[in-house]
């Protein structure tokens, strides 16, 4: 990506301390995650439920609620570290420079006030506007996302699922931020509405130039839209690189497994296996590589050596097969 | 309305000469009253659905949310009573069933598997509880030891081992995929003929969905069970099903052998649905044209095709006459005035051939 980086996440870690009295220890939901977001870039984050992707988003936006807490690392947005920033300062950035689109618009929108009133609330909380300005800006953003501005008077239940999600996106764009964080905004929609929403996000991005971090469990959804792809597993980034590279030549067995888990509507019909087993319990992550209990190409040292992210061409992969030092040290496996 | 031709020859019912499919519906319709008793407003959830499910067949019912596919499952499971129309089970109308025993028998033959494995198992009981109850209720011939044997068998049949250990656990000790397998095991314990699976994998992680779909295929092969697989994911429908039915706004708009429908979708809605499926294997090409419009809310609908507002091929006739399903290719029917038939639709009656001039079924 050509633009300058606007968000730098370094070694971000989030821990949920074990609830009092239970046997389980602290849960490391996000473990030393690092990546950059550049101007106007679309970053896709994929992984199964419980892999820490939503927690990571909330950590970046500083929206985590106790008992979860950021235990390490930094999130640098335009030179300022969001992790250590005071709330007052954070309030100036939120919504103006960085906004969030929540997963379920049905729950994120207030059911008892009109869409327009909610737009007004957001505008007034983060700036000073006259009634006319509020009106003007609200109409503008509704036009942007392709909803008739008469719906500013509507209540959330009067809109269809797709329109509600669009209204959420309109709300996130009230101040034309530089970064919009989206947490599965399309997961409640059917494929047709999903596709048109994705096209709309991409088009808005082209017009307004904001960057997007897009979290989803549906890897195929971002395949045609994202520039950079992060694959998360067990709280860690297991593969990161240009989207097309990850899709064409996945270098981590988990990415490969995820890709092979999707039946296709085109081409020959093939028998698929999915990935056996289930995601790890993060209170007691497996020793060594966290994917080793489910990995089809597991070898001896996968059970003991914790892999790092190794450079493989233009992507980085957390798999010991790509450890440059391994060839010399481990001969047992062959 | 002509019934779809059946690809698999059905067995003969003991009662009559006619070969009866395992389950068939005739003009199945369900309307819900909305907005109070005197509003006179009816939501047409399902209108005139003719469905045929043969023995050992997996039929996929595909459509967006609100298209009426779950209503059909609930009608077949006798959760709802149809507003009109009839459900024939092995040639016998459900409305003729009398008494608890007959209804129970039907419920055992046609059980349902639910969408959410986290709320469909009772958290207070062990896994064995649900399976054993089903066995007690529907399989009187078994004694206590046989019931346990049977429970172990069905748990193993859905791919969970060691079965005795799994049976002893509580639902919270199982992952989502394992719980949903238990859902199938419970249904299997009744020795069913047809399992109604309402979005059984949509709550599960993508990496384990395929495993469940494979379980369905295996049960069909090993236990001779038919499935009605309800989903909005057309790719997974293709993966497991023999026949595909597409619903839009309460109408079945297209039906036929899965591969034939996907290779050559006749209805513009099926074409739209297919073009919207993201496919990572396809080369990078983003068509700039977003789909227009939203699915209609079918409250007191006027006649005409319900897809016409979104349809790129709509002609005047679409606004006045509701299109009926008509054969366009072998065993392949679609409800569209504009769609063109194959040169030689074997099923004959190409009654609306004149409307072919209205437009070509343009590839999406």
Automatic annotation (TrEMBL), chain A:
Please name the GO terms of the biological process aspect recorded for this protein, alphabetically.
Answer: peptide transport
Q: Which UniProt keywords apply?
A: ATP-binding, Nucleotide-binding, Transport
Q: Example GO molecular function term? A: ATP hydrolysis activity
Tell me the Pfam families matching this sequence: ABC_tran, oligo_HPY
Q: Which residues form the AAA+ ATPase domain?
A: 39-236
Domain of life assignment: Bacteria
InterPro entries, alphabetized: AAA+_ATPase (IPR003593), ABC_transporter-like_ATP-bd (IPR003439), ABC_transporter-like_CS (IPR017871), Oligopep_ABC_C (IPR013563), P-loop_NTPase (IPR027417)
> PROSITE patterns under this entry?
ABC_TRANSPORTER_1 (PS00211)
Among SUPFAM superfamilies, the record links this protein to: P-loop containing nucleoside triphosphate hydrolases (SSF52540)
* Family recorded in the similarity comment: Belongs to the ABC transporter superfamily.
Its recorded name reads Peptide ABC transporter ATP-binding protein
UniProtKB/TrEMBL annotation, chain B:
Which keywords annotate this record?
ATP-binding, Nucleotide-binding, Transport
Gene Ontology biological process: peptide transport
Residues of the region (Disordered) are 1-20, 341-364
Pfam families per the record? ABC_tran (PF00005), oligo_HPY (PF08352)
- UniProt-listed InterPro entries: AAA+_ATPase, ABC_transporter-like_ATP-bd, ABC_transporter-like_CS, Oligopep_ABC_C, P-loop_NTPase
What GO molecular function annotation could you give as one example from this UniProt entry?
ATP hydrolysis activity
Q: Which SMART domains match?
A: AAA
Q: Where is the ABC transporter domain?
A: 23-274
Instruction: Provide the protein name.
Output: Peptide ABC transporter ATP-binding protein
